[in-house]
Write a structure and sequence with these properties.
mainly alpha; single chain; 76% helix
């Protein structure tokens, strides 16, 4: 643990913030590219190509951070669970925005920090006061607003189950981030990124074995069809997009792992919300999508709740430090 502390004190929060901002930019580009490809390829083929290419780039980072020896771990089970949670988070999120506008899916996904707050109680043994619990409830009410329960199912443009997919993705992502906190002091960022890429390759390969020939395809539901359609040889122009996805995935895996290794989560996590205006920008620029008023309202409630939780965590952390100083002197 002392190694992790020295890492953080040497770099300070600035490096963590820089990594998270760059990582969120890369994520927004990644989401835009996946949505662009979602009409012609199955999700597991896109994920396989992205991760197989991404592993090559990430291996260069492994060499820069210490070589093959840093891939050895004494906690393979936790790394495997972390990789599985990332796969679930990505699959659910990508399946959703095959149908949803990019901004809508991204806004729903940003309940992840609220899930992190709730899960930190049983997983990390953290104490969460009534103010933060109230903020979490307020944020989840934003999800309800975006679900538009006052509208008949037939009047909605998408199935309500599809609207829940980004929320399920956020839950899996929250679990992954809690495991990152546990594993970060003992693993290099590049090694953690490799473990995730391997998990993607393994799961997408299993999808190919089961459904790669398209035997389960032909569904009217666009999200299900995105998951189960047959693999096809990429068109010539799409190779550039797939290569960009692979390079981008290496950046994402490294930047997010490094950000949470170098800085306190409460300090850098609010900067993840930069992904929301980026999603709105890409949706407007490429697909001419702008959120409806319900989405804007839910988005504001979710972001407001998340920012309150993070600011409250920073305030509580400062109080703990002051109390420790008082007891010493």
């Amino acid at each position: 643990m002392s190694g992790a502390i020295s890492h953080r004190s040497a770099f300070g929060p600035t490096a963590g913030i820089a990594f998270i901002l760059f990582g969120m930019l890369a994520i927004s580009v990644n989401d835009m590219l996946v949505k662009q490809l979602s009409g012609g390829y199955p999700l597991h083929q896109i994920v396989f190509a992205r991760s197989a290419i991404g592993i090559v780039f990430t291996l260069f980072l492994v060499q820069a951070e210490g070589g093959w020896r840093i891939l050895k771990t004494h906690q393979p089970g936790l790394h495997a669970l972390r990789g599985l949670l990332v796969v679930i988070a990505n699959m659910c999120f990508f399946a959703a925005f095959a149908v949803l506008p990019l901004a809508d899916a991204t806004a729903l996904f940003f309940v992840a920090p609220l899930f992190i707050t709730l899960l930190s109680i049983p997983v990390l043994g953290e104490k969460v006061g009534p103010l933060r619990i109230g903020a979490v409830v307020f944020g989840f009410l934003g999800v309800v607003v975006m679900q538009r329960p006052w509208v008949d199912n037939e009047a909605l443009e998408v199935d309500r189950i599809v609207l829940l997919l980004p929320v399920l993705s956020a839950l899996a992502y929250a679990g992954m981030q809690l495991l990152t906190r546990k594993l970060g002091p003992f693993s290099k960022a590049s090694a953690m990124a490799i473990y995730i890429q391997v998990a993607f390759v393994v799961v997408s390969s299993l999808f190919w074995l089961v459904a790669g020939d398209g035997r389960y395809g032909g569904h009217d539901n666009a999200s299900v069809e995105f998951l189960l359609r047959a693999w096809v040889w990429p068109a010539e122009g799409d190779w550039v997009l797939l290569f960009g996805l692979g390079f981008n995935s290496a950046i994402i895996g490294y930047c997010l792992s490094q950000a949470y290794r170098l800085s306190n989560a409460a300090t850098i996590a609010p900067y993840e919300y930069v992904g929301l205006p980026l999603a709105v920008f890409w949706g407007w620029m490429i697909w001419s999508d702008l959120p409806e008023w319900e989405v804007w309202t839910g988005m504001a409630m979710i972001v407001g709740a998340g920012l309150f939780v993070f600011l409250r965590e920073k305030h509580k952390a400062r109080e703990v430090v002051r109390d420790e100083i008082k007891t010493r002197f």
